[in-house]
Amino acid sequence: MTALRRTLRTIANAKRVGFQWPDWSGPLKKVREELRELELEIRGRAKTKARISDEIGDLLFSVCNLATLLELNPEKSLNATLDKFQSRFRFVARELKKKGKSPKQSTLKEMTALWRKAKKSNPKSQR
User: Fold this and answer.
1) How many whole angstroms separate alpha carbon 24 and alpha carbon 68?
2) Alpha-carbon distance 110 to 95, whole Å?
3) In a 10 Å sphere around its CB, with 0-12 CB exposed, 13-18 middle and 19+ buried, how is residue 57 labelled?
4) Smallest Cα–Cα separation from 59: which of 42, 37, 44?
5) CA-wise closest residue to 9 among 78, 70, 56, 61
6) Domains in the chain: how many in total?
7) Mean pLDDT per 10-residue interval, the chain, length 127 residues
8) pTM, rounded to two decimals
9) Model pLDDT, residue 20
10) 55 and 31 in one domain?
11) Which three-class secondary structure state does DSSP give residue 10?
């Protein structure tokens, strides 16, 4: 079972016994809290990969919890974002190829400009 599927099952089980916020505001607050904690771990002097990984896990769980309270499937949301990212990245690579370059031969600034162009060329994917 994937971690995402396991997360959704865990959230559903908790919800069944009443261990769930009544609306989206609680989990949104939790997402913000987890993001702050992640940033503190990343910036911390005693940062360790294990502690950062724990915070990333907490953040991902909180985002999934928020999605379920909004009656969204986070797997579908993530797949849609992956499709959008891949489409834009292919656009960037094609445009660079027209200039005789590869992404590795380009700067982040060049690729970011092309990324923005990709977003503008497909208004439906600007979310």
Assistant:
1) 9
2) 10
3) middle
4) 37
5) 61
6) 2
7) 95 97 96 97 86 96 98 96 96 97 96 96 61
8) 0.86
9) 96
10) yes
11) helix
**Residue (of 82, 73, 3, 67) closest to 31 by Cα position:** 67
Could you tell me if 58 and 119 lie in one domain?
no
**Shared domain check, 12 and 67:** yes
Whole-angstrom distance, CA of residue 122 vs CA of residue 26: 34
CB-based contacts of 91: which residues, under 8 Å, 6+ apart? 114, 117, 118, 121
Token code pair at residue 59:
């953040």
Question: Do residues 114 and 91 make contact, with C-beta atoms less than 8 angstroms apart?
Answer: yes
Q: Cα separation of 123 and 108, whole Å?
A: 23
Q: Do 24 and 66 meet the contact criterion of CB atoms below 8 Å apart?
A: yes
- DSSP letters, 32-63, are HHHHHHHHHHHH-TT--HHHHHHHHHHHHHHH
DSSP E strand boundaries for 1-127: none
Residue 62 and residue 11 share a domain: yes
CA 92 to chain centre: 20
